[in-house]
Here is the input.
Amino acid sequence: MAIGVRALHLTIVPHALAVAGVLMVLVWCIYLRGGLAWESSNKSLIFNIHPVLMLIGFIILGGEGNQNSLLLKLTAFKYHNESSIANLYSLHSWLGIGIIVLYGIQWIYGFLVFFYPGGSSGLRSESLPWHVLLGLFVYILAVGNATIGFLEKLTFLESSGLAKYGAEAYLVNFTAIVTILYGAFVIFTVFSQAPQEDDYSYSAI
Here is the structure.
């Protein structure tokens, strides 16, 4: 099923949203939150790595997010452990673990069936729609969970004295909105019309 919009035209929007999202999360974490660090006496700098990797590696780069997923979760655990905060107590953390597991299953299954050693043509044709469907489901979950993460962090900051109507609060909320819009346009692009091959394109012999 394809919507009546050409994919080539539609991809302009998510690319623009991706650039906006990257700039916004970097301004938030580096300019307003003080920067990024793996080792620091200021434990918030360790946490700042988490939303940057989440948005750039997991949401925007998509497939590259599989390689960043363990580091993404590790930064959250490191921040919690060094700040004496309990782990895995929130919906955001539970969904995060589930999403990483599902991404891993998707990657391993796709590698074994579609790449090496490769399944039979029948298995591949039967698996493909389900593989695509599960991939979209996991991606939607990831976008939703990223938004929950922005909300959770902002709630903690506001309970610690951050102005509810200040510039930083607005920036975090708008970053979450851009993340949702980016995810939505990625899904729209998946269901849009693929480019038509012209008469001069190469074809298999």
